[in-house]
Design brief:
heterohexamer; A alpha/beta (131); B alpha/beta (120); C alpha/beta (97); B: 120 residues; alpha/beta; 4 helices; C: Hypothetical Protein Ychn, Chain: A; five-stranded parallel sheet
């Protein structure tokens, strides 16, 4: 659970993740988002592009000691209202999602277009790329 | 929504099929939203600016073919390329696609003056 | 306006890395993950910290601890909240990986 | 379709793929295997480890101009009897496969253990790593 | 099945969580099949041989912790490390985990004399 | 016994790459993908081909064509079947990426 401080007029963030879940960039992105939310900042959207779309594979049932980044992102999204958007073209190209077969992405993630990333860049006051 | 100045930084070698294509799609979407967009090629990204020399084997479009589409999306200014990245790779003598050459010391100002930098 | 440079890659040789030439006064460098190896006691980036021209260097305390690296003078160890504070302070950021 | 020449006493191969499908290494591995089979050599097993397990995501229904490496590997496996094995631990860690939920991998691929890679190394006369 | 001499070459920086772990699992499986296995660390792989200096933050096991398990799987010989890779990274003065130091010119013979080389 | 070296990475600086120091007489080098950029006319690896000590260099014709690179003397362009023939000829192979 992440405590969200309600404060006025705080900086907002949009994050671009272009790297697969087991990269240093992917870990840094999650730690950044978690800390930002914990400090009361708003992360309006995280956009998963390129190899980053592998984040949205539904995680295996818990059992081992590792909690996947996918699960941790989903929890953060739920608790702090972060919009996790997958690029549809990149996801389809990699077999992570298919519009036709209705293959599902992990809970907490949704599929969208590049336009949603542009919108996020225009709304947020800070944009960070984890690529 | 206000207009912002975007700087898209291309840093990776372009021939691994989907990478350049996906990064350009993102850049073209910015243009479709009528944002001010600059493309900057540096580090291994500069290999994207090598022209095709002859007819290509079948396969995905070449970097040169992909970049040729930019003007049709309103990106009429040729992209920026960092001179030192070319030099370090022995590409300073090579014929390149049209580009505006800048020095490494000028990159800091481009980064700082943009509203949004996308590292691709 | 000043930029926050996020560096993720380890050194690729003995020379000055390309990103170092793309800094200007007032910029900050955040070394992440394996980039920290650059500033080990005899690492190729050690002499760049702190540079002559007021660029500030940062790293996560965890990343330093995990790699057994003592922060040299001029490198500021921060926690995750410090990372966020930097992203607020600097209007733009760029990633070198 | 790949024409398989039947010849005696030819060199056999085992391939290790550690890279995601859109890497140069992944493409080179497939081209190598296709050519080897086309020349009548036997590729006894291809083992997908690390990021290589992303090869086994079921491809999106065809429609675009790109045929995924996943589909091409499956065709090669069928035509030339190549055993495509996914490391179960690496696949589970990345959400590509789950033993408990019964999530399926792409047609032509199967899930196995590291022991199957060792066996392939002991049987094959040549081992190549595409990592 | 006959016994073969395996050479496992570790070339990547080890801290990105799953990578070293997965490569070591593969190596330990070879040992479990009673094969002759040598581990060779070079390029950015040599960072795996840095010992832990103090108590670590919570998280996945460190490279040093992972490597400490090798003897329990029958890999009692310390791994090989390439001297030039250490030197190029300024690690020649650092305290390292136990390893047998070899020169770059010796790597060719190791590669050629193995029955199977796994590049990890 | 001789080894086939599969090189996938582009040059990382002006010097001699680490893999070059790991060759011995009789070994072969196969440059793949972006490694080809190393042997462009002024590329940092151009002078390594052909080396003094009988190492042979190979590349895929397609990779050369796609990057607009003319094969220098001492580099043998082959097709996919040629790649396989090399893997048969050399008993071990190693990948540098």
């Amino acid at each position: 659970m992440y405590k969200v401080l309600v404060t006025g007029n705080m900086v907002t963030f949009a994050l671009l993740i272009n790297s697969a879940p087991h990269s240093a960039q992917a870990h840094a992105a999650f730690r950044f988002a978690r800390a930002a939310v914990g400090q009361g900042y708003r992360v309006i959207r995280v956009f998963f592009h390129g190899e980053g779309v592998y984040h949205a594979l539904p995680p295996s049932p818990p059992g081992g000691s590792e909690v996947s980044l996918t699960t941790r992102w989903a929890e953060l999204a739920r608790d702090a209202n972060v919009d996790l958007v997958l690029c549809s073209a990149a996801a389809e190209r990699r077999g992570v999602w298919s519009g036709e077969s209705g293959r599902a992405v992990a809970e907490g993630f949704r599929v969208g277009g590049l336009g949603q990333w542009v919108e996020a860049c225009l709304q947020a006051e800070r944009t960070l790329s984890f690529t | 929504m206000d207009g912002r100045r975007f700087l898209c930084v291309f840093r990776r070698a372009p021939h691994t099929d989907a990478v350049l294509r996906e990064h350009l799609d993102l850049t073209l979407t910015l243009a479709a939203f009528e944002q001010a967009v600059e493309l900057l090629f540096l580090d291994d990204g500069v290999y994207a600016l090598l022209p095709d020399r002859q007819s290509l084997p079948e396969g995905p479009p070449s970097p040169a073919q992909l970049l040729a589409a930019l003007p049709f999306y309103g990106l009429e200014q040729p992209p920026l390329v960092e001179r030192e990245s070319l030099l370090e790779r022995g590409l300073d003598g090579e014929k390149l696609l049209p580009a505006r050459h800048i020095g490494r010391h000028e990159v800091a100002a481009l980064l700082g003056d943009a509203d949004v930098v996308l590292s691709l | 306006m000043a930029t926050l440079h996020l560096v993720f890659h380890p050194p690729r040789g003995p020379g000055v890395p390309a990103w170092f030439g793309r800094l200007r006064t007032g910029d900050a460098v955040f070394l992440l993950g394996d980039a920290l190896h650059g500033i080990r006691e005899n690492g190729p980036w050690r002499s760049l910290v702190p540079p002559a021209e007021g660029t500030r260097f940062y790293a996560l305390k965890d990343d330093l601890l995990r790699r057994g690296i003592a922060a040299p003078d001029g490198l500021n160890p921060v926690d995750d909240a410090g990372f966020v504070a930097l992203a607020v302070e600097y209007r733009t950021s760029v990633t070198w990986s």
